[in-house]
TrEMBL record:
This is Vitamin B12 transporter. The lineage of its organism: Bacteria, Pseudomonadati, Bacteroidota, Flavobacteriia, Flavobacteriales. Keywords: Cell outer membrane, Membrane, TonB box, Transmembrane, Transmembrane beta strand, Transport. It is a multi-pass membrane protein. Residues 48-154 form the TonB-dependent receptor plug domain. Belongs to the TonB-dependent receptor family. Its main location: membrane.
Length: 646
């Protein structure tokens, strides 16, 4: 596809929108009215935040029907989700600001989620369907002061859907689509998803029940000709019960069950070729439960967020050396208690004090390893404090510190300082921050088959500066942030000259720098443009799969009161990948070519406020590209769906 033509088309649409801007209307961009919680754990106006917090609203998600959580997150400035364009069963890595999967903390309804048996203690994005989500906030930068270990490059804060004020309401949805790579143009239905939700409020009691299932089939995970199709299936159940005792005290109990299973291939082998494998398969099952409580008093508010989870995973993998199929079994448990108090010292100053306690353990059993949770476990207790000052003359300051008390790694102190200023006579807000973070090694890295009891925690520090301006009667919003991140004591896999493999800390410091730019322009009520650009420059040692330049653009048109269209564009510059070559017994690096994608979605409200139907086409021009070496990618695909509300 001619990329110059694509860029010219986008510029032409933007110019046309500029002409429309001459029409006056009273509409304000919703972004200005947003309430965010990620940088304080309590609700505050977005304009009082000293950070550029990316917010994906319920309206945004409605317009992105048919997309996965990975697809949605990959459109956020500074966020790269490798695997979002591949088969649904592929592992998905989240890279933010040149960092790695483990450096992103994921929270759901105020509680952290992770799998302690995973190599990097990360959370598997494949476990959660986007249809159950109400809102997503992405807070970038070192955020360990509020969120503890793991929040080195970003926090992804997910809010699930809440109960309506009606006694009984809900929705049922269903969608079906094709599943083609660039060599296939069949119209067979191989992508299915359906779900049902009930919710409501009965006086002081409220409830939410959500069920979702998904199935993909006949799409090979490995890239190659005439490979047998792989499969992926998932089921999710969420149950929430809430009780509002009075205007001051409310309580919510939740339970969550997730399960998926999939078949997969060997993504690469000798000379970078992939191989079809009929034996590889895996499954994952998660149970989560917890309690959220809030109490408001005269000068403040108290929050208590608790959770506990178990995850069991198993996989069967072909052993090409022994000619066998090996079985691997993993399990993990984690528990979390986070108590946070907000106290209003003055009308312009409040203090957050809190303590967070977490427990993790894991087990791994296979023909070569027997790690038990009696041995592989640790706990963390973190007291923390943050002060938030919002002046009447435009100055806002968020500053705090956290003491990490780790059962294996002793004490770590992190802190943040985040001042911002809004000019009274100019439509400009300037932002700056300096924050530190830490990442303790995972249980697998310490106690697993390649574990190292002498590992040290990784350390991160991030400095950033930027601005936000709002023009044209609140129709145009532009913000930009430049960042510099320094990382040391990186934990990574190492094989010595005697073929002994284990995890070590690398002594060299790793530097990453870049910039993120967001533009929102809504000249009239029926039309808006959103676009972002990300520049990321990171030292080669951690630069795998991260594009140096990335562009996302989206044009929303409300054609009629019931008919909406969304056209999306993504550009990814060259990236670097690596694979282990079974022929040469060495790791080989390779450059991946740049590529761009154009997608479109049409939404139509067939029965007002009751029945919505949508149709989408992804990778319209069927561009052939490689997301990561050895893996298949999606070509042009179509999807149809409906959502019935009752």
């Amino acid at each position: 596809m001619n990329q110059k033509f694509i860029y010219a088309s986008i510029l032409a649409l933007a110019a046309n929108a500029s002409l429309c801007a001459q029409e006056k209307d009273s509409l304000q961009i919703n972004q200005l009215k947003e309430v965010v919680v990620s940088d304080t754990k309590f609700e505050q106006k977005r304009e009082n935040s000293g950070k550029i917090i990316e917010v994906i609203t319920a309206e945004d998600l409605q317009k992105k029907q048919g997309q996965s959580l990975a697809n949605v997150l990959s459109q956020v400035a500074g966020v790269e989700v490798n695997g979002s364009q591949s088969f649904s069963g592929k592992n998905q890595g989240v890279y933010v600001r040149g960092g790695r999967n483990r450096q992103v903390a994921i929270y759901i309804d105020g509680v952290p989620v992770s799998d302690a048996s995973m190599i990097n203690l990360e959370y598997d994005l494949r476990l959660i369907p986007v249809e159950q989500i109400e809102k997503i906030e992405v807070l970038k930068g070192s955020s360990s002061t509020l969120y503890g270990t793991g929040a080195a490059t970003a926090v992804i804060n997910i809010t699930l859907k809440k109960a309506s004020q009606d006694k009984v309401s809900g929705n049922a949805y269903w969608n079906v689509g094709t599943l083609n790579n660039q060599e296939k143009s069949a119209i067979d239905a191989n992508d299915f998803e359906q779900g049902l939700a009930f919710n409501g409020t009965l006086k002081k009691f409220n409830y939410v029940t959500m069920i979702n299932s998904k199935e993909n089939k006949n799409f090979s995970e490995a890239r190659g000709e005439n490979y047998e199709g792989d499969s992926f299936s998932r089921i999710n159940v969420i149950q929430k019960f809430g009780y509002k005792f009075n205007d001051k005290f409310a309580l919510t109990l939740f339970g969550n069950y997730d399960k998926f299973k999939n078949t997969y291939d060997n993504p690469y082998g000798g000379a970078s070729s992939s191989s079809d494998d009929l034996n590889n398969r895996s499954a994952s099952e998660q149970f989560r439960a917890g309690l959220n409580a809030s109490y408001k008093y005269n000068k403040g508010e108290l929050l208590v967020n608790t959770s506990a989870a178990t995850i069991d995973r198993n996989s069967a993998i072909s052993n090409t050396w022994a000619g066998t199929v090996d079985s691997y079994n993993y399990s993990s448990r984690n528990a979390n208690v986070d108590i946070i108090n907000k106290y209003n010292v003055l009308s312009s100053l409040y203090i957050l004090t809190g303590v967070q306690a977490q427990y993790f353990d894991m087990e791994q059993k296979d023909a070569y390893t027997d790690v038990t949770n009696n041995f592989a476990h640790f706990n963390i207790v973190d007291p923390y404090v943050t002060a938030v000052y919002n002046s009447k003359f435009g100055l806002n300051v968020n500053a705090g510190a956290r003491l990490n008390i780790h059962s294996e790694y002793g004490n770590q102190v992190v802190y943040n300082f985040n001042p911002s200023y809004k000019f009274s006579n100019l439509p400009v807000r300037i932002l700056s921050s300096y924050s530190t973070a830490y990442i303790t090694p995972s249980l697998y890295q310490v106690y697993g088959p390649y574990g190292n009891l002498d590992l040290k925690p990784e350390e991160n520090a991030t400095a950033e500066a930027g601005f936000e301006t709002i023009l044209l009667d609140n129709k145009f919003v532009l913000n930009a942030v430049a960042f510099y991140r320094e990382e040391k004591n990186k934990v990574d896999f190492f094989t010595d000259i005697n073929w002994n493999s284990f995890y070590i800390n690398y002594d060299n410091k790793i530097n990453a720098k870049g910039a993120e730019v967001n533009v929102t322009y809504k000249p009239v009520d029926l039309f808006n443009i959103k676009a972002n650009y990300t520049f990321t420059q990171v030292e080669d040692v951690v630069g795998l799969l991260i594009p140096k330049h990335k562009v996302n653009a989206e044009i929303n048109s409300q054609i009629t009161s019931r008919f909406n269209s969304v056209i999306g564009f993504q550009y990814f510059s060259n990236r670097k990948d690596a694979y282990y070559d079974n022929d040469t017994y060495a790791t080989t690096r390779i450059n991946l070519d740049a590529y761009s994608l154009i997608n479109a979605t049409l939404n139509y409200n067939l029965i007002k406020d009751r029945l919505n139907i949508f149709g989408s086409v992804t990778n319209i021009f069927n561009e052939d590209y490689v997301e990561s070496i050895g893996y298949n990618t999606r070509g042009r695909n179509f999807k149809l769906g409906l959502n019935f509300k009752f």
